[in-house]
């Protein structure tokens, strides 16, 4: 309720705007307190109601929300919020369809750390990344590798699999999925996922 009251006062003299509360960011599995769209300018607002200082954690939280930002975070008192929004919005008057923007997908592939965090938080694969391979091909690749792992485990053998494809095809995603699935459903195994700028490797082995 305090956020509503604050924004009601801050936006009372603003030009036409669209306001979203608890704006979901699927790739991250997080929600921004408020997003205001005025012209072609998008404000991501994180409230710390009752806070007396701008903690580093709070600033990093906003930076995280606006990962593809074109401006640095601003730390504002409630009394300054409306004036700053109006000042910035005055330079962003290009027509912009806020509803179409809100309904569109967020397509950049996350970093390996972001993807792993979201995956282990049990978010759906479709929410954390995009891939050019369809679900059938990804599933088939994962099933084949899982079969190789199981065969190596039963036969006490070592195995290595190479997955090829263009950037964005889903190779890293397949590795993350396999490692997560083996960790969750096979208590006698330790799944390790390694990734870098070069080829990635994934190993499932007995403790």
TrEMBL record:
InterPro entries: SLFN_3-like_DNA/RNA_helicase (IPR018647). Residues 158-199 form the Schlafen group 3-like DNA/RNA helicase domain. This is Schlafen group 3-like DNA/RNA helicase domain-containing protein. It comes from the Bacteria. It comes from Asticcacaulis benevestitus DSM 16100 = ATCC BAA-896.
């Amino acid at each position: 309720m305090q956020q509503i009251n604050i924004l009601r006062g801050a936006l009372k003299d603003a030009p036409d705007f669209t306001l979203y509360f608890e704006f979901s960011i699927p790739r991250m599995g997080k929600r921004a307190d408020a997003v205001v769209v005025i012209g072609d300018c998008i404000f991501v607002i994180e409230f710390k109601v009752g806070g007396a200082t701008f903690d580093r954690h709070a600033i990093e939280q906003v930076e995280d929300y606006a990962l593809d930002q074109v401006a640095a975070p601003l730390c504002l008192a409630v009394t300054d919020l409306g004036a700053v929004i109006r000042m910035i919005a005055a330079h962003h008057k290009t027509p912009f369809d806020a509803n179409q923007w809100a309904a569109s997908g967020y397509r950049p592939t996350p970093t390996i750390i972001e993807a792993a965090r979201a995956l282990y938080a049990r978010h759906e694969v479709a929410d954390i990344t995009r891939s050019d391979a369809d679900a059938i091909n990804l599933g088939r690749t994962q099933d084949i590798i899982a079969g190789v792992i199981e065969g190596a485990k039963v036969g006490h053998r070592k195995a290595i699999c190479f997955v090829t494809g263009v950037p964005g095809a889903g190779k890293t995603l397949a590795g993350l999925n396999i490692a997560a699935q083996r960790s969750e459903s096979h208590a006698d195994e330790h799944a390790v996922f390694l990734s870098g700028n070069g080829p990635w490797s994934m190993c499932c082995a007995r403790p």
